[in-house]
Specification:
Length: 192
């Protein structure tokens, strides 16, 4: 047998095996359609009703408020620890002016945000439009409470987030300026 014939047979055999493999694998799934009865509407879920959405929103905002409380509780210790790190770097002769100004701005913003946080506490305590378990009693008052609380939480975010981002940027700049790989080599003269 010639080599061309053997090559042709092997190619044909490989092609047949590949074709059988592709035929045995389904390319698309088929699903049966269930019985459709337009006469029976589905019952609305708790979150699709207006009162359900208000209850969900109030509960969600209370959860966010609780998480913010934990952050504010830890903020003083974190700021003081970071201040200690800045003081150590300053003692080592590093330029920490950018870090110090960003930390001061964040500390000021946190104290401003804590007063806004305390205002939000009064909204949660009064829970106007909601009963003690978070169910809607007056939809109009509940809607106003949710909007007011959302506004306070947004105000806290707008107060703290820019100084926090500035501090992160100052940390990046400090690390880039003081990294051991940042040393520029002295230019050398190449002999030719």
């Amino acid at each position: 047998m010639s080599t061309i014939t053997m090559w042709f047979r092997r190619t044909l055999l490989a092609g047949l095996v590949a074709a059988l493999g592709l035929v045995s694998v389904p390319l698309a799934n088929a699903y049966a359609l269930g019985q459709f009865d337009p006469g029976t509407p589905t019952a609305p879920t708790q979150t699709t009703t207006p009162t359900g959405r208000l209850q969900w929103a109030f509960s969600r905002e209370q959860t966010i408020y609780g998480k913010l409380g934990k952050l504010f509780d830890n903020a003083g210790t974190r700021i003081s620890k970071f201040q200690d790190l800045i003081n150590k770097a300053k003692a080592n002769g590093k330029d920490v002016s950018g870090l110090q100004s960003a930390l001061d701005a964040l500390s000021s913003a946190v104290s401003q945000a804590q007063s806004i946080y305390n205002d939000a506490q009064s909204l949660i305590n009064s829970h106007s439009g909601f009963d003690a378990s978070g169910n809607v009693t007056d939809q109009t008052a509940a809607l106003q409470t949710v909007r007011d609380l959302r506004g306070k939480l947004r105000e806290i975010r707008q107060t703290v987030l820019p100084p926090f981002r500035a501090l992160r940027q100052a940390i990046r700049a400090y690390r880039e300026a003081n990294s051991p790989n940042n040393v520029t080599p002295a230019p050398t003269q190449s002999g030719g």
